[in-house]
Specification:
The complex is a heterodimer of chains A (300) and B (200).
Chain A: H1 12-29, E1 43-44, H2 56-61, H3 74-78, E2 88-93, E3 99-102, H4 103-107, E4 113-120, E5 125-135, H5 136-143, E6 151-156, E7 176-180, H6 181-185, E8 190-195, E9 198-199, E10 209-211, E11 224-230, H7 237-241, E12 265-268, E13 275-276, H8 284-287
Parallel strand pairs in A: 1-4, 2-11, 5-12
Antiparallel strand pairs in A: 2-3, 4-5, 5-8, 6-7, 6-11, 8-9, 8-10, 12-13
Chain B: H1 2-6, H2 8-30, H3 38-66, H4 76-98, H5 103-112, H6 114-131, H7 135-141, H8 143-149, H9 152-167, H10 173-194
Helix pairs in contact in B: 2-3, 2-4, 3-4, 3-9, 3-10, 4-6, 5-6, 6-9, 7-8, 9-10
The chains are: A alpha+beta (300), B mainly alpha (200).
Chain lengths: 300, 200
C-alpha cells in the first residue's frame, strides 16, 4: 500500500466547507414545507370548479397528516424536515408493464393541469384546492392492468424516524387506501404533484398524493410510494381503525350519517357558518353512474 | 404564605387569571387568529378548560390536606364555578355557533350520539352545583346534604372524560391522561373513606 504523505491530507477548513456544501445541496433537493419550486407549463383544466379557492394559509396550515401529529397545525410544523427526494413510486400487481419511477419520471408521466377541486373532510369541513397533476388513469393505462385487476391499492410512505408522532396517532401505519378500478380510471381521480402553482408542500402529502374529490378526504392518500393492482377489495387505514364508522367507499353523502355526527351539513373554511353537504361533494353528475343500483347506506 | 393566600387580593388575582383562557379566545376570534376553523378551536379550548377546572377543583381537597394549607378552601368554589362557566361556553359554542340552535338536530344528537349524551350529562350535573354554590344554600340545605349533593362533581368530571374519550377519532392520549388524573384524585378520596375510623 503506498504511503500517504501529510501534504495529501485535506485541510480542515476545506473538509468542513465540503460538508456544508453537501448539506446545502441536500437542502435544495428536499421539498421545503412552504413556498416551493414553481411548476411551469401547467394548463387550466375544464374539470375545475368556479367556486372561490381557499387561501394558501388555510390549505397549508390546517392539515390531517397524523404521521406528523394529530393536531391540525402539527403537520405544517413537524413536516418541515421531511425528505421527499429521492422518491420511488412502484406500480405493481396485476399489470402487464409494472414500473418503478423516480421523482423526475413522476413529474413527466403526463402534462400538468391545474384542477380546482372541492375537498370535503369526513370531519365536516371543506375547502377548495387548486391541485396540479393529471388523471390517475393516465398512469394506469401506461402499466396496462390485466383483466383480473378489480381494485387499485395505495400505500403511503412511513418512516418512524422522520415521523415520530406517528406512533401516537392511534391508526396503523403505513397508511393504506384503495379504489375500485372504475373509480381509479375515472377522469376526476387525480394524481397530484403540486398546489397553488408550486410543488406540493410536505404537510399536504409531498411529493405526490391522490385527489378523489367525490369521496371524504381521507381517501385521498398522501405521499404515495406504492400502487398495486389487485383482485380483492384492499384494506384501508380508517376502515381498519373503525370499520363501523369508515367504509371502503366513503362517498360524500348528506343522507348517510357518520355514526357520531350528521353529514348533512359542512363548514367551508375559513369560516363559521354551515352549508348543506352536496351528494358526491357536488360531483354527482360525473360519478353517480359508478354506483348505479348500489345501496349507498350499505356501501358507505 | 398563609397570609398571602388569605388575602382578598389573592382571590381577585386568581379570578382574573381564570378569565385568561376566555379572554385569549375572544381576542383571537376578534383578530381572526384562531385558524381557518375558529368554531372548532373554540369548542376544543373551552372543552379542555372545563375539564382542567374540574380537575383543579377536585385537587383542592387532597392538596390542602397533604400540604397542610387549609386556607386553599377559599378558592374551591370559584374554581368550581369556572368549570361550570367554561362548560357553559363549550355548550354554547356547540348549540349556538356550531348548530345554530337547530333544536331538532340538537335533540337528535343528545340521544343518538353517546359522546354528546355524556357531555350534556356532565354539564347538567354541574347545574345544581352552580345553583347551590352560595353560603345561603349551605345553610338552607344543611352541611351534610350540601356535601352529598356536591359529590355530583365526581360524576360530572367522569362524564367529561368519557365524553372526550368517545369523541376523539384515534388519538386517545389526552382523554386517557385526564382519566388517569381523575382516577388519582378519586383514589385519594377512596383511601380517606376506607381508612378505619379513629377512636376519639
Amino acid at each position: 500500500m503506498s504511503k500517504l504523505r501529510y501534504s495529501q491530507v485535506t485541510p480542515k477548513s476545506e473538509y468542513l466547507n465540503r460538508r456544508r456544501f453537501l448539506a446545502a445541496g441536500a437542502a435544495l433537493l428536499a421539498s421545503p414545507a412552504y413556498g416551493g419550486t414553481k411548476l411551469t407549463g401547467v394548463t387550466k383544466s375544464p374539470l375545475s370548479t368556479t367556486e372561490p379557492v381557499t387561501s394558501y394559509e388555510a390549505i397549508t396550515g390546517y392539515n390531517n397528516y397524523y404521521e406528523f401529529g394529530t393536531q391540525k397545525g402539527d403537520p405544517a410544523k413537524n413536516a418541515q424536515k421531511f425528505v421527499t427526494s429521492p422518491w420511488t413510486l412502484t406500480i405493481e400487481g396485476m399489470v402487464a408493464k409494472p414500473k418503478t419511477l423516480d421523482l423526475d419520471q413522476i413529474m413527466k408521466i403526463a402534462p400538468l393541469e391545474e384542477r380546482i377541486y372541492r375537498h370535503r373532510c369526513v370531519e365536516r369541513w371543506s375547502i377548495v384546492v387548486p391541485w396540479i397533476g393529471f388523471s390517475l388513469n393516465t398512469l394506469l393505462k401506461q402499466v396496462e392492468p390485466t383483466s383480473q385487476a378489480k381494485y387499485v391499492a395505495f400505500q403511503s410512505y412511513y418512516d418512524p424516524g422522520q415521523m415520530p408522532e406517528g406512533k401516537h396517532a392511534g391508526i396503523k401505519l403505513p397508511y393504506v387506501e384503495g379504489l375500485r378500478i372504475d373509480e381509479a380510471m375515472h377522469p376526476l381521480a387525480m394524481l397530484v404533484v403540486g398546489l397553488y402553482g408550486e410543488v406540493l408542500p410536505n404537510q399536504n402529502g409531498a411529493p405526490l398524493r391522490l385527489a378523489v374529490p367525490w369521496k371524504y378526504g381521507f381517501k385521498s392518500i398522501k405521499s404515495i410510494v406504492k400502487i398495486k393492482l389487485v383482485d380483492k377489495e384492499p384494506p384501508t387505514t380508517w376502515n381498519i381503525n373503525n370499520a363501523h364508522e369508515y367504509g371502503f367507499y366513503s362517498n360524500v353523502n348528506p343522507e348517510v350519517d357518520h355514526p357520531r355526527w350528521s353529514q348533512a351539513k359542512e363548514r367551508r373554511l375559513p369560516g363559521i357558518g354551515m352549508r348543506p353537504t352536496l351528494k358526491f361533494n357536488g360531483y354527482e353528475d360525473q360519478v353517480a353512474g359508478l354506483y348505479a343500483g348500489m345501496d349507498l347506506r350499505k356501501y358507505y | 404564605m398563609n397570609k398571602i393566600l388569605a388575602s382578598r387580593w389573592t382571590k381577585v388575582l386568581v379570578f382574573l387569571v381564570c378569565l385568561v383562557p376566555v379572554a385569549l379566545l375572544a381576542w383571537g376570534f376578534h383578530k381572526n387568529a384562531l385558524g381557518p376553523n375558529p368554531v372548532e378551536k373554540i369548542e376544543h379550548e373551552t372543552g379542555d378548560w372545563t375539564i382542567y377546572f374540574l380537575l383543579i377543583t377536585l385537587a383542592i381537597t387532597p392538596f390542602r390536606k397533604l400540604a397542610n394549607l387549609p386556607v386553599l378552601i377559599r378558592f374551591r368554589r370559584m374554581l368550581g364555578l369556572f368549570a361550570f362557566f367554561y362548560g357553559f361556553l363549550h355548550l354554547m359554542a356547540y348549540v349556538w355557533v356550531d348548530q345554530a340552535f337547530d333544536w331538532p338536530a340538537l335533540w337528535k344528537d343528545v340521544y343518538k350520539r353517546p359522546f354528546v349524551t355524556a357531555g350534556f350529562t356532565g354539564f347538567c350535573l354541574m347545574v345544581p352545583l352552580a345553583l347551590t354554590s352560595t353560603a345561603w344554600s349551605i345553610r338552607k340545605l344543611g352541611g351534610r346534604r350540601w356535601q352529598r349533593l356536591h359529590r355530583l362533581i365526581y360524576l360530572s368530571a367522569l362524564a367529561g372524560v368519557i365524553h372526550y374519550y368517545w369523541l376523539v377519532k384515534s388519538d386517545v392520549r389526552k382523554p386517557l391522561l385526564y382519566g388517569a388524573i381523575l382516577l388519582v384524585l378519586m383514589l385519594y378520596r377512596a383511601a380517606i373513606w376506607l381508612r378505619p375510623a379513629k377512636i376519639a
